[in-house]
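Ticket #4471: structure output looks truncated?

Reporter: J.K.
Steps to reproduce: submitted the chain below (325 residues) through the standard prediction queue, then opened the result file.
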Amino acid sequence: MRKLTASAEATGVGVVLVNWNGAEDTIPCIRSLLAGSAKPDRVVVVDNASSDGSAGLIERAFPGVELIRNGENAGFTGANNIGIGRLLSSGCDYVWVLNNDTTVHEDCLRTLKGHMEAHSEVSACSGKILYDEPARMIWYAGATYNPWTMRPRHRGGGEEDNARYDAVENVPFLSGCCMFVRREAFERVGLFDDHFFAYGEDSDWCLRASREHMRLHYVPQAVIRHKVSASFRKKNLHSHGGTTSPLAIYATSRNRLYIIRKHRKGMAQMLSALFTAATWYCYYGMALLVLRRKEKLGALARGVYDGIRGPLAQPDRTMLRRYLK
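Returned output as attached by the reporter:
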C-alpha cells in the first residue's frame, strides 16, 4: 500500500468527487457543498473518462473546482485514490470522500469538521445518510459488522428517520458514500485497495483501520442525501433492465470473496463466511436464471470465479472493461 507524506502546511478540508457520465448529479452535489455554512477549501472532481460531455459541463459551471480527466475509467477506487493523493499533497488536514450523487445539508461540513477537531482520537467519521427520495427514509445510520459473515450492515436502512439513531457512536464501518478522514489515517492505513475497483473497498479500508485500532464515528447531526448508485443504475436501465448492472453484480460477487481471502482470521471464520456467500450466490443465481437474465448470470459466475482464483497482488481489469462498454 502506497505511503503518503505530510506537506509542510495544512489547508483545511478537501473534497473528492468521482464523476462518470453524471454531471446531472455532480453539479447539484458541488452546489450544495458551496452553499454550506462552512465551505471546503478545495474540491477535486476526478472524471472517469466520461463520454457524455460531463467533464466540460462541470468545468464550465465551476471554474474554481479542480477537474482531473482520466484517460480510462479507473473505477471508484482508482479515481478516488487520484483525488485523495492530490488533496493530501496539497496539504489538506481532512479529506472528504463523497459520492457525486449526494447533496449535503447546510451545516454538514461544519458538523463533521467540528466533531473531528473536538475528538482528536477519531480517525474518520460519517454523517446520517438519507435517501434522496423518499425524503425521510434512512440509507445509513451507523453500521454493524458480523465477523462470521465478514460483512457490514447499514443500520436503519429503509426505516423512517424518527430520531432513533441520533446519538454519536463508535462504528465498525463507514460507507464510501461519505467518509470524512483525517490525513493521518490515510498516511497510516493507505488509500483504497485498487483491486476492488468499486464496491467493498470501504469495507476493506475500515477493516484495515480496525487492525490499526483506529476509531470511526457516526455523527448523525451531519446529514447527507443520496440518490444511490445513480451512474450504474442509469446505464443499466438503458441496456439491461432491472435495477442492478452486470458490472455491479460482477464486482460485488468478486469483491465479497476478496474480503474473505484478505481479512479472514482462522479457518472457522473463513468457512463460515464462505458458506454464507455461497448460499447467497446460489439464491441470486437461481433468481437470475428464472428471470432469464443471462448476461447478469454470467457476470455472477465470472465474479465468483475471479474472486476465488484472481490474484490479490495485481489488479486485473479484463472483465471490468467488458462490462464498462
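Triage note (M.O.): checked the attachment and the full C-alpha cell line is present. DSSP finds eleven helices and twelve strands in the chain.
Status: closed, working as intended.
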